[in-house]
Design goal:
Elements (H helix, E strand, L loop, with lengths): L4 E4 L6 E3 L3 H13 L16 H11 L7 H15 L5 E3 L3 H11 L2 E5 L4 H11 L8 E2 L10 H13 L8 E5 L2 H10 L2 E5 L6 H5 L5 E3 L5 H8 L3
Parallel strand pairs: 1-4, 1-6, 4-5, 6-7, 7-8
Antiparallel strand pairs: 2-3
Helix pairs in contact: 1-3, 3-5
Length: 226
């Protein structure tokens, strides 16, 4: 395979946090913050960065954004305390793809909206953390479209200065994953394992749409015509 940097989203792509966990987490988080309720809004969080989400949460609740770091720290600590392996599911095919890319690609990593600490908490509980060491995270920038450039700089250190955006593959389950790949000129792989259907994802014209990340050598070969 040609030198490529393969980047995975987490939620909806590698793992799914079970439905009942987030309300429990929010309840504990509220108690730690000394609040009874918090306005979370109705906008979908799918594909957004944690920096974006938490900044808007602060503004929606009339809390000064100077409290961002305190909220971030409390959140990642609470997630680490509460999340158990029973609270999430590894998506079928994800472990196979993560392992194969880790062992066979020039480099692999993460491109996720999660804060770095939250990302590795989830991966550790799922037993997938051994396949990932680096990437671009939701704390690196407010806009997800800025994350591929962060990852590109990392990829150049890992693979070499000749790494081009088109040598990067961004894998995710939302239109925002596809959009950020296109924004920086990367290849995009959309998976139907999240909240969006194949038809919904197709509208955003990813380079490839998959129902499963199983057999990665096959779909990566098709992506690069190898």
């Amino acid at each position: 395979m040609r030198p490529v940097f393969i980047l995975f989203d987490i939620d909806g792509t590698l793992v799914k946090v079970r439905q009942g966990f987030m309300p429990r987490l929010i309840d504990v988080l509220l108690r730690k913050l000394g609040r009874d309720t918090i306005e979370v809004g109705s906008t979908s969080y799918a594909g957004r960065t944690d920096r974006d989400i938490f900044t808007k949460l602060l503004k929606a609740n009339g809390i000064c954004t100077s409290n961002f770091e305190a909220l971030r720290k409390t959140y990642v600590e609470t997630l680490d305390e509460m999340l158990s392996p029973a609270d999430l599911d590894t998506i079928p095919g994800a472990a196979e793809a993560a392992e194969w890319c880790y062992e066979n690609s020039s480099a692999s990593g993460l491109l996720t909206g999660n804060f770095r600490e939250a990302a590795f908490t989830k991966l550790h509980r799922a037993g997938l953390d051994r396949y990932f060491e680096t990437g671009a995270f939701g704390g690196d920038h407010y806009e997800r479209n800025a994350l591929p450039e962060v990852a590109w700089q990392i990829g150049r250190q890992l693979i070499g200065d000749n790494l081009q955006p088109e040598d990067m593959v961004i894998i995710g389950d939302t239109p925002r994953d596809v959009a950020c790949a296109k924004h920086f000129g990367c290849k995009s792989v959309a998976v139907t394992t999240g909240p969006f259907t194949r038809e919904e994802l197709r509208k955003h014209q990813p380079d490839l749409i998959l129902d499963s990340l199983a057999a990665p050598q096959e779909w990566l070969g098709a992506l690069f015509n190898d």
